[in-house]
Amino acid sequence: MTGRIILVTALILGAFLMLVPFLWMLSLSFKDSAEIFSSTLDFFPARLSLDNYITAFTKVDLGRFLLNGVIVCAGILVFQFLFSVPCAYALTQRRFRGRQVIFGLVLAGLLVPFHVTAIPLFLALAKLNLLDTYTALIVPFVSSMFGIFLFRQAFAALSPDLFDAARLDGLSETAIVWRIALPLVLPAATAFGIFSVVAHWNDLFWNLIVTSDPNLATPPRGILYFRDRESGSDIGPLMAATVIVIAPMIVGFLMAQRRFIQGLAAGGLKG
Amino acid sequence: MIEIDAVTRCFGENTVLDNVSLVAEEGSFLALLGPSGCGKSTLLRLIAGLDDPDAGCVRIKGRDISGLSAVERNVAMVFQSYALYPHLSVAENIGLPLAMRELSRIDRSPLGRVFPASRQRRSDTQARVKKVAASVGISDLLDRKPGALSGGQKQRVALARALVRDPSVFLLDEPLSNLDAKLRVQMRAEIVALNRATGRTFIHVTHDQVEAMSMADRVAVMLGGRVAQFGTPRELYETPSSRDVAAFVGTHPITFVSGPKSGGLHPIFHGVGVPSPSGPVVIGIRPEHLTPAPQGPITGRLHNIEYQGAEVLLDVICDTGITLRATATGDWQPPTPGSEIHLACAPVHMHVFDADSGARLEAGHKGAASCA
Amino acid sequence: MRLSRKSRSVLTDIWLVGPATCAMIVLIFIPVIIVALMSFTDYQFGARSFNWVGWQNYIVMLTDPTARHAVTNTLVYAAIVIPASIFLGLIVALGLHHLALKTPRFASGLRAAYFLPVAATLVAMAVVWQMLLHPSLGLLNQLLAAMGQQGPAWLSDRGLVLYTLAVIGIWQSVGYNMVLFLAGLAAIPSDLYDAAELDGAGSGWNRFWTVTWPMLGPTTLFVTVITATGAFRVFETVATLTKGGPAFASDVLVYAMYREGFVYFKAGYSSALTIVFFLLVLLVTALKFGILEKKVHYK
Ligand SMILES: Nc1ncnc2c1ncn2[C@@H]1O[C@H](COP(=O)(O)OP(=O)(O)OP(=O)(O)O)[C@@H](O)[C@H]1O
Ligand SMILES: [Mg+2]
């Protein structure tokens, strides 16, 4: 019994430590600067005011950052589906020469972290005059090896009879991909979608490289613009902005914990 | 009419279909009978156009269809696993082949709900779905998903999906293998009735010989990728063309007795009245044709009795140590085990096979009536 | 003209796999080849020409005292984060697994708390950490001050900064490892514990060493490799909090590659850093696929 009490206490304490940054962020986001810079330590804000949140939206273009995040994530996700679902389908449900080779390439591609390809991709985009565009933010990610791999696993588990039946029913291969195959692997598709959106919503590296225009900043980059511009004096609104930026991921996670964990855990397969 | 002409299919080194030739008359019911793994499904897939033969060709109504895709062949198939789309309702499952063939892209899109002509066509297809669902007795299941159906119900949905668009050929891949015994008997009759009602050619795959014999006009026995025998159920049963076919066909397993190496029948059969062949042979004799008879030419010692109600199965050990299986009617009063017993068999029911090749040897049953 | 069935089928295959295959070649394989070649040049972004310099870039990276920081710091960072976050992840997973037997809802609430840092945007959270660790206003140093201690400058002290970053790295990855371990624990059949009990391995400690730990073997290897690749690619926290400073004390491979390539435009040198980073990741990832194969065989 005492063992159990110790265990529960330790786990709660640990969880609390994990949450400290979040709690501190929330606390600061409601405090005004007088309170923040006062030397007394007070966890709870004196009063709940949304001033910082209003400032975050009016003084900097937080809305713009969020919109950019949505555009980039959605653009990437749509293309990743368009490219990887048909490819994974063909790799499992069709027989053609070179199938093994292509799958071998996919596995090899899975081993290459994105950072490795950054320099040549940057050069190419610069040559094409595409730096500082949404295209530059989206194009490098359109073909996801991880997506192909994940969908291939999911399709391989389906009965080939289903696809033969669809062929006899008069569906074209393209129709089979979108009307039969994809709906049947919805859990895998959701897991992949969550993985992809979280990864690109949170990514800073590529945005830092191909954009210099604050109007194209995705949320993490936007936060940094904000922080650097205010040179540390506007902590309250900055914290409010971070709350807003992480909110979609956190809310999504709390609402669909199982799917989220599945999606991110599956991401471990990626190099 | 479907002609399968010298079709061969190999997967790598493995020759799954070896020079298979079959003919199914228009409107007939053909059964493909064979043990698991003998290539039945492979042959069906070749006919359906889901796979291509390495050699040979398939003709429908005299026309080579190797250039036609699966859709263009207008065949319908009921899969071993039923292959219902789990994410679509029963009505959508049945309606999909119609929608894909008869509705335009616009008709199928949400816009189709708006245009009067599209709406007309859509409601037509829905009416046909309802009609075919009623004909196989699943009208009240139309809104369910396949996951919520029993095996028998799934099987009916799969049939309805095949029936809805009036194909020229029906291919059925072991559709009854997942059903319980009672339902299986009922569905056999229903499928045969469908064959008569539609007048289309049916090709029915099964590994259950009772199913094949009771349903089909003609049965092709496939063994190891070859057609071992192709004929009516009666021909198969009465004159099996080889030892393997004889072993495969029949409710009770046939008993084989090898003759001496030097040739001729085994001595216990000398009194039956079958002319003795010269080479080495194997005799096949079905339990149902071997019955106790007071004056029977075969003698042995009763070893074991299995009472099954309508009939009694007997194991009889003959003098030479050979065990024969015989049957008697259910009301037969058995002697005590261990006592001597006489068995009789009509010469026509003794199948003589070459001991090496297993091929049937036509022994002349001259005038030898039953010895009972 | 109507195409034959064969050629239509080939066209379908191309239509299905073509786009992804082309994109894969253009976006992954060609760049990898180019970056490997560039690592042997002195190419600068915007320059008109370049020279082949052989192993020069690699020699500088591994011998020049300041440049060497990127490699050594990455290894030190990984050497701290990998064992710590695996150990903590395992401890938490064991605790939660045990707790979930009696109070599943409470356990899943705690699990969510531990996983939260994984889902949260790291850059945003790094900014929050900056506030927590602020030398005078930060929560940590205020707490220390309340206890009469003078807290250090966590992020600008040369000796401390790498460890501070490592703590943030651990904070961020514990939840992820915990989730993987929980999955591994859930997959251990409970009759193994019954068998252990019969064999006399009754106490929790014995049960852990006779059943749990051996059965978690594949999971642990998997977690190790994932944590390792994660640690090698640390970038966000460095870029947000220290920019590799002070005086390269927190310089790491990916950040150095970014700085050399995209701030100083030394593409050739940056490519060499990239290749070293790639080889490190490749080493552990190759290991991972070996393990994965085995895992598949288990089932
Ligand atoms: N795509 C394929 N690649 C390789 N071998 C195959 C393939 N399809 C079938 N085979 C092989 O061909 C043989 C025959 O398979 P088939 O499915 O036709 O058997 P079947 O007679 O339908 O058996 P069952 O009664 O079990 O359904 C099997 O040995 C199988 O392993
Ligand atoms: Mg089969």
The helix/strand order of chain C is HHHHHHHHHHHHH
Structural class of chain C: mainly alpha
Radius of gyration of chain C: 25 Å
Kindly estimate the percentage of residues of chain A that lie in beta strands according to DSSP. under 5%
* SSE order of chain A, one letter for each helix or strand: HHHHHHHHHHHHHHH
Q: CATH homologous superfamily name of chain A?
A: MetI-like
CATH secondary-structure class of chain C: Mainly Alpha
The gross shape of chain A turns out to be: globular
Main β-sheet of chain A, in a few words? Answer: none
- DSSP strand tally of chain C: 0
CATH topology of chain A: MetI-like fold
The number of distinct helices of chain A, counting runs of at least 4 residues, comes to 15
What CATH architecture of chain C do you see?
Orthogonal Bundle
| CATH architecture descriptor text of chain A | Orthogonal Bundle
Tell me the distance between the termini of chain C: 51 Å
Integer count of domains of chain A: 1
Query: How much helicity do the residues of chain C have?
Result: over 70%
Distance N to C terminus of chain A? 44 Å
What's the structural blueprint in terms of helices and strands?
The complex is a heterotrimer of chains A (about 270), B (about 375) and C (about 300).
Chain A (H helix, E strand, L loop, with lengths): L1 H29 L2 H5 L13 H9 L2 H32 L5 H12 L3 H14 L6 H5 L6 H12 L3 H9 L4 H12 L1 H17 L2 H6 L8 H12 L4 H21 L1 H10 L5
Chain B lengths: L1 E10 L2 E11 L4 E5 L6 H9 L6 E6 L2 E2 L10 E4 L11 H13 L2 H4 L7 H20 L15 H13 L5 E5 L7 H18 L2 E6 L2 H7 L2 E6 L2 E6 L1 H6 L4 H6 L6 E4 L22 E5 L5 E2 L5 E10 L3 E8 L4 E7 L10 E5 L5 E5 L18
Parallel strand pairs in B: 3-8, 3-9, 6-7, 7-8
Antiparallel strand pairs in B: 1-2, 1-4, 4-5, 9-10, 11-12, 12-18, 13-17, 14-15, 14-17, 15-16
Helix pairs in contact in B: 2-4, 2-5, 4-5
Chain C lengths: L4 H34 L17 H8 L4 H35 L1 H16 L2 H11 L6 H8 L14 H26 L3 H9 L5 H12 L1 H16 L3 H6 L11 H11 L3 H32 L1
Helix pairs in contact in C: 1-13, 3-4, 3-7, 3-10, 3-12, 4-7, 7-10, 10-13, 12-13
The structure holds adenosine-5'-triphosphate and magnesium ion.
Q: Would you kindly provide a brief summary of this structure?
A:
The complex is a heterotrimer of chains A (271), B (372) and C (299). Chain A is mainly alpha-helical.
Structure overview:
The complex is a heterotrimer of chains A (271), B (372) and C (299). Chain A has one domain: Orthogonal Bundle (MetI-like fold), CATH 1.10.3720. Chain A is built from 15 helices and no strands. Helices cover 26% and strands 29% of the residues of chain B. Chain C has a single domain, classed as MetI-like fold, CATH 1.10.3720.10. The chains are: A mainly alpha (271), B alpha+beta (372), C mainly alpha (299). Chains in contact: A-B, A-C, B-C. Chains A and C meet through helix 1, helix 4, helix 5, helix 6 and helix 10 of A and helix 1, helix 3, helix 4, helix 5 and helix 6 of C. Bound molecules: adenosine-5'-triphosphate (ATP) and magnesium ion (MG). The site of magnesium ion has 4 residues of chain B, from helix 1.
